[in-house]
Design brief:
This protein is mostly helical. The chain has 7 helices and 2 strands; from the N terminus they run ααααβαβαα. The protein has a two-stranded antiparallel ribbon.
């Protein structure tokens, strides 16, 4: 029994009688209040579900999958197989690979990272939401795939150094 000495059914019955006496206009006004209370109770669950983020493993598989998710958000084409094939040819999966011998290196801008991107290309094709560090695996893959999409239609169409 509530602290004020009335049971719940008596209070509910009194509210129902007041609504019936006042007419349906008051009942319509009361409905949004009931709905608002219900909606606010559900809001924390919705917010908690939206806050759950995908966790990717810190390895080549995870970097490619995270890049693919970012690419999908930005409309950048590419497949897991296309990215993996090019990563293995360019860096053997080493995110810190650097080419210090080709013409780019001689000109002072060596190719870096998983997909061997030079800094000017990385900056020009950087994708929002990724790191500005060209050695960051996800940023490197995503920028390189963005470049390949603009130049070749997709990373899937790249079969040699690009």
């Amino acid at each position: 029994m509530p602290a004020n000495g009335q049971n719940r059914h008596a209070r509910t019955g009194r509210l129902a009688r007041k609504l019936a006496v006042a007419g349906t206009g008051v009942a319509v006004l009361a409905l949004p209040l009931v709905g608002a209370a219900t909606a606010s109770a559900a809001t924390p669950a919705t917010t908690a579900a939206a806050a759950t983020a995908t966790v990717y493993p810190n390895n080549l598989d995870g970097w490619i999958r995270e890049s693919l998710d970012i690419m999908a958000q930005h409309g950048i084409p590419g497949t897991y197989d296309g990215i993996h094939r090019n990563v293995m040819r360019e860096s053997s999966g080493n995110p810190f690979a650097i080419n210090n011998w080709d013409v780019n290196a001689v000109n002072g801008t060596p190719s870096k990272g998983l997909l061997q991107v030079i800094d000017p290309t990385f900056r020009a094709y950087h994708v929002a939401g990724t790191s500005w560090d060209s050695y960051d695996p996800v940023a490197n893959i995503t920028a390189a795939c963005n470049y390949a999409a603009h130049r070749y239609g997709s990373i899937d169409n790249v079969f040699s150094a690009y």
